[in-house]
Structures are given as structure tokens and as C-alpha cells.
What does this fold into?
Amino acid sequence: MKAVKRIAIIGGTHGNEKTGAWLLKKFMKRPELVRREGFETVLRISNEKAVERCVRYIEEDLNRRFNPVELADPEKNSYEALLAKELNEELGPKGAEKTAVDFIVDLHTTTSAMGVTAILDSENALAWQAATYLKAHDPDVRIFTWKGDTGESDFVHSIAPAGFALEVGPIPQGVLRADIFEKTERAVHHILDFFEKLNAGTLEERAAEVEVYDSVTLLDFPRDEEGEIAGMVHPELQDHDYKELKKGDPLFMTLEGAVIPYEGEEPLHAVFVNEAAYYEKGFAMALSRKILKRLSWSDSVAPAGEASTALDEGNP
It folds into this structure.
């Protein structure tokens, strides 16, 4: 078993999500806030040019640029593709036996009412342990499993053997809000505390049954024959992320005011409801299934790249 030696906290992956970038600026001015025994905390504002311009990206979404094939392709030379390769060399490289950092936490905000959500895209034991610890110390935290709209683990945190993204909202793009800032900072401190205790062998928790929202599908807006959006998220669903949708529940409302109900036979939960950034990606929300994950661990440090055999799905 090896100790976790370097953890990266990343912000500004999307330049119009100010919270992460400004929290990193705070930590850079006061590094003692993220200093813990037993490991080094690396601080990185990932897309500084996009942050300066307060835009999501310069040419293309940085948080979808970490596919190994694309990272190795010399013809991928957009601003974000080159930046992804730079970050991969600095913090990875992805998939290597030895990487520069052991764990990445990537800080995001959302216009959706998701509160504090840890987004995991693998069964990596260390990522699940950290997320479970975070939820245990902040019961309002939710865990959402999702590989994004690409269906692959192409997020920036995938550079490291383990990691996850934090989504905190609701907050408009390009805005700083003190409550969202404080929630994000508190979550970061819990995660750093976890690694300090893990390395020291002083974790309080030994086992947990965790409620998880497991992504099932992405759902687009209703559209007309020309492909234009022809309806909006229904008022009863708007600002109610994680609400259970049952067949017949209001889902969308057309521009003329007609209700379009949810037609699925299986009750599912809506996540990323009406996220502004996903209009360009062509979906209105993600639908997820609520399950239970059972997790247990000892004080020993798990190998950073090892998938857990202690995780299994419970009943919804």
C-alpha cells in the first residue's frame, strides 16, 4: 500500500465558473489553509485565458479534452487541446504507472439547483472513499455517477489515478456568490482532512451505505421540425434537481403553455436540470436512478489506481 503524496485542487476549467478560480486565488495567497500533514496540495487554475475573458472556453470545452487518443494526437491543436496536453504532462500523464499527482479535485459551479454534488466517473476505491467521507461530514452533499455527454472519462480529473469533480449551485455563469464560495471551500477542507486522516490511519468511518444517483440517460428539450427548442422545463421541475419523476409528472411546458409529461415507465431522478452550459450540447437534463452503494475500507491506504472490490450496488 502506498500513501497519497500529492493532491491537486483545480479551478477555472470553465472560465465563466468563477467560484473555483477565485477560491484557488485565495488559497494561493494563503497556502496554509490547504496545508495538511503527510501530503502536498497542488493548486492550479486550469484555463486562465478563459477565466480572464469570463467565457466557458476559448475554442472548445477543456473538460472534454482528456481522452488518451486525443491527448496523443499531434493534429489536435486547438487552444484547449494544447492546454489539455500541457496539463496532462504537468499532473499526469494519464494512465502512467507513476503520475505527478495521486488525486485531483476539479471545482465547478452549475446554474442547476444541485447543491454540492460530487461527480464520480469510475469505481476507483480512493475516489469513493473520499466522496463518502465528504458526504458523511456534510449530509447535504449528493453523489452523482456520470461519464459526461461523451460517455468516456474525459474530464480533467481523469489525468490522475483517482479524483472527481465538485459541482456547486445554483449560481449564474460569470458570478461570485458568498454562499456558493463558502460551500465549495468547506467541501475542499473536508476532502483534504480525509487524506490527512487516511495517510495517518485515523479515519473514523469504517463502512457506509451511501445514496447515489446513477446516470441513466440524457434528455433533450422538445424541438420543432427545424430543430429549434419548442418547450421549457416545467415550473414544477425547475430548481428541483434530484426530484423523482414518475410517469405522468410534468416535465416540459411548450411555448404555448401545453404540458409535456414524463413518459418513462421507471421513476427516475432529474439532475443538471436546465443547466445553461448544456444548451449547446443538446440536452435539458440528465435522468438518474437512485441506488445504494455499500462501501467499506480500513485505515490502510488503497493503491491510487486500484478499483474497489468492496463496492456493490444495493436496491434502489
User: Anything to note?
Assistant: The CA atoms of residues 88 and 290 lie 33 Å apart. The two ends are 33 Å apart (CA to CA). The chain has two domains: 6-206, 213-290.
